[in-house]
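Teaching note: in complex prediction, the entire set of molecules is handled at once rather than each chain in isolation. The prompt given to students was simply: 'Predict the structure of this complex.' The entities are:
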Amino acid sequence: MNGPDVTWYLAVAGVLFATGALGVLLRRSPLIVLLSLEIMLNGANLALIAFARQQGDLDGQIFALAVMAVAASEVVVGLGLIVAMARRRLVLDVDELTTLRG
Amino acid sequence: MGNVIVWIVWLAALFGCIGSGVAVVSMTNPFYSAIALIGNLGSLAVFFLLLQAEFVAAAQVLVYAGAVMVMFLFVIAYLGGQADAPWAGGSSWQRWAAVIAASALLLEIIMVIGLKAGGRLSDEAEVREAFGSPGDIGRLFLTDHLLAFEITSIVLLVAAIGGVVLGAHSRHGEPRYEGPAGVPVSRERTLPPEPVAATPHDASGAGVPG
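The expected output is the structure of the full assembly:
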């Protein structure tokens, strides 16, 4: 491959994962937490596909497609929860939702 | 020559990817965050194309940047897009702990890549021209990974049912359980009283001879 080797792709995947983790930990709005979660999943996907290219094995790409399907399911359920929360007039703030706290 | 072009495309995708990722985390308005995430997914699709994953790149653009992000934008439009500043809310130590945890994670990943894997990852397997084509992916899905394929379809079905259940209103025609007589039922929301009218269906059915 005439271009950057897999190490560079892995570094980008690591930066993406850390950016998403920062968003998940820092932001208070559950919508932006979900968006940051998508960034984390995509970082993992990039690493999977980079390793698939380096090993010459398509299993990594299959795994990445499965991760995409799981991410789509997670978005459906997460957005459904957020809409249900908004309909019950709850505050959309992950620090305020402490009903289940022991 | 081809080498230079690949590097230029790679650097452009890198800036798009990291820049839009930081924008998602730092934007105040969730609408702009979602738009930035579409840019992030698009530049990731460029990376996938450079890694000879054509089918995954196409699925990324169709499924993620298309379907999932449209759903996000609909929900943000429905909720009115409340502003949420990145540094607002929470105590100060929480913010610093978040930044420190994320930087520790980044440092860890970079250290592992640099120390452990750096030298051994530069040699790559020779792959065929059809590597990552829809035909190859489909054949693997229907032979080696058939179980994973079917389980994925069940996961998607369950998620769709869950989304419908979470989003469903109580139907207006159905009688609601009001609780035992004399016991007040507390509700989150009071619905308008349901109209109690004879349905035209009964009246028309009575007139039919036979």
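Point out the following to students. Chain A has one domain: 6-87. Chain A has three helices and no strands.
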